Amino acid sequence: MAAEAPAQAGPAEPNHGIRIFIPWLILAVVADVLIWVVWGPHLPPGDMSSSASNQQFDIKVMAVMAAPVMLFVLVYFGYALIVWHHREGDDEDGPPIHGNTRVQATWITVSSVIVLALFVFGTVELVTTNGAGAGEGASPIWKPPGNTVQVQVIAQQWKFTYRYPQFGGFETTDLVLPVGEWVEFHVTSIDVIHSFWAYQLGVKADANPGVDNIAYTKINNAGTITVRCAELCGLWHGAMFDYGQAVSLSSFHSWATSTEVRLAAVTKLLPPYALTYDPTVVAQMGKGMVAAGLTGGAGLYYPPTDPESP
Amino acid sequence: MSLPARISLLVVAFIGVVAVGAFVVLHYFSYSPAVEDYATGVTPDTGATVHVVMQEDPQNTVSTHPDWVSYFIQNPQTKAWVHTTLFQVPAGSRIDMTIYGFDGCTPLRNPIWGQVTGTIGDVEYVNGKPYHQINSWSGCNVGHTFSIPGINLNVPMATPGLIESAKPGLCGTSPCQPGDPKAVPYRIMTFSFNSPHATGVYFWQCRVPCGGGFLTGFGGPMQTIGFMTGNMDVVS
After folding, report:
1. Do residue B51 and residue B150 come from a single domain?
2. Exposed/middle/buried for A232, CB within 10 Å: 0-12, 13-18, 19+?
3. Are residues B168 and B63 both part of a single domain?
4. ipTM
5. Does A301 have pLDDT greater than 60?
6. pLDDT at A2
7. Which of A191, A294, A308 is the closest to B218 by Cβ?
């Protein structure tokens, strides 16, 4: 009885790993250099403040980490299409695959390292940048050292107004900030929910009624700041924007002191500076108004318990 | 049912659904109040004077929401009061505004809007008396504001006092007719501002949350063009 002939050995398989790895490595290095050097300096939101420049740095780091991953998927995809696509007359099944411990271990290890590294990186970036420009609530965990310039942001349909408690508590529609100083935003609302988004500063903090939401940033450069509401807040939400200015410290002091004097009369109409305001209870309401049963601003008339359908 | 009958029924039903849908879209989404044209016949960018006349009422008895407060604009040709909040003015012109305030008082939620800004001289005249600001928390003296954020214009609208309006009551039929203030109390606000040279639509609003019955007072008429907010269309 003749022995069964051994299966004919096919041509030796090339080292697919190396053939995928080398072009991927070249592309990844080129992409990362381009991202960091060419694209990075132009990434939003710029470098006008500490928060903005840190966010730009964060985006650069994440892009540099993400690009090789994305490129690996694309290179593998392209390699598979070119090398392993079906060929005319080849009806054979591929070899059975029962797993590859080395590939699986590499896959899990690399994924874990990337995710854990991003977790640590994100946490450090949140702490070292004093909240990264986001609202930290009424009791911030991370605070900048030294003195700050306090600016209260009061959102209302459909306008932001700004109070400067260190300058007599005047309130204005103009946002002016000093270069080189830490700014402490106290963001609140006196009607519905809004969101204070100072784009070039990398500051975005929710403005909720009855809540003092604190956000920090240090102004690096002078320039124009675009402020937008980032929370759908009614008919004219799209028009709820304005432009602020970052100016030198001396210009800021000059503006603040002159504005304090200029607005002295209207400042007397305002409620005493507070971290939040309840317009339904106004301590300064005139006697005639109280006698008529009115104890608060317009909110008193229309409490949330009295909604009706349009 | 025969096949032709079924087809006919389906076609009729389809047309009916389309007609109802078109009606809903046209009625609720395409409705737009009239635009009062104060620009025609005026050469823009010459500083010419245009006189715009409006009134704010405690209600309106001419719409499907009679309990909503509302502004009205006077037609410049016929002088008839029109239930709209859209008006057109020439660019680069002086706009003299007269607003009759028939509504009662509502204290401002933020008293900063008691300050007059954006008018010529940062002043308004209430029954001829100049004001740079009004303290709405001290007495019953502000009902609404007329504010155009795009040109930083803010003018508080004065109101008849509580005692003054207690007996005759506020105007109850819209549009209200200026006449004997003892019969129907009201205030006359006059102020002037320069329309921008840049053409475009500048929205205006009231800053007193006067949408009674709505959450925070900022629903209903405050969110509806034709009542307490509208557009100033600057044309050339």
Report:
1. yes
2. exposed
3. yes
4. 0.84
5. no
6. 44
7. A191
